[in-house]
Design brief:
Length: about 80
């Protein structure tokens, strides 16, 4: 799957991933290959994903995700510092 994590100022990640877990308003949820199309808001929490066999993570404040045809676009306001 192709993943893009972006904000108005910066691209944080762009590449292939095996899976991603996102902080949804009703709790964390995971996206796997061939997931149904979805648009969801995100809350403060952790994004965790696997790329090239390595697990990566980042804390975000909020945002939204769009998934369609194995392409995931995560738009965030900023990362949590």
């Amino acid at each position: 799957m192709k993943l893009e994590i972006i904000s108005p100022e910066k691209t944080y990640f762009r590449g292939e991933v095996e899976w991603i877990t996102l902080p949804g308003a009703m709790g964390p949820f995971q996206i796997l290959k061939n997931h149904a199309p979805i648009i969801s808001s995100l809350t403060r929490g952790q994004i965790v994903f696997s790329s090239d066999g390595h697990v990566k993570d980042m804390e975000i404040n909020d945002g939204f995700v769009e998934v369609n045809n194995n392409k995931i676009i995560v738009c965030i306001d900023s990362i949590h510092k």
